[in-house]
Amino acid sequence: MITVLLGNDNPMMQRPVYGLVDGQFVRTGSISVPAEHVNQSVTRVEFWDGIDDPALVDLTLSTDNDRVQAMIARGLGKEHRRYAVAVAEVEQIMGVHAGGSAPAWVASEDAGMAAAIAKHFGCPIGEPTAILTTVGRDALHAQHLTTAAQPAAFNYMAVSANTTPASAASTTLPGEITTGGGGLVRAQATYAHTSTTNTSTLTKTFTANGSDSLPVTLAKVGILNAASVGTLGYEVLLNATSTLTISGDSTAITWTDTVA
Q: For residue 158, which of 94, 119, 186, 229 is within the disulfide window of CB 3.0 to 4.6 Å?
């Protein structure tokens, strides 16, 4: 089985359609409609191992009169032709689950599959990864080893609509939302760690209120060590953006820190 993860910034839901048949209202189908007040999702696709078998793909392309699939194969070129059937399936899946929008990113344990999907859709490979900033690295060393006063713990979470790639040179979170009285301002997250494991998490739910400037699409997170100012330890783009439209809309963010 080949697993593929697709960043989905336009999640859709299926709504049933009913019609009058022989004097009775019955379900006649379904349509895809935007998931209300939701704009964050990761679509998971699991392919059987033979989906990229060259013989199967050649047979499919030789007997299938689907012009779209033939065009996909030509666009992928010789290097990625073996993934043509899988890419065609992904295109159909995104049509249903994302209204035809391209994936925001693609990740898979099969590097060739990920490369083929990325080439077809023009999206980056891999989930967004966190950047440990230069000032954050210095602070972490001081936390562990200094004989002077240690820097405060990094457990404050801030959000931003900024979509530029994370940078180790950042000392503040670009575009951090700081609206006074708003529900999207920096706040202390909940820390959790299971003994003997090498991961810890910070979780925080941000809920928009009447003071926030809406709609807003959250795209980036920063982890800092103070309620204001402080040191920016980490910066990362969300693996799927989250659009908050009205007061009361919320998004839950989980930050996982793995110590190798």
A: 186
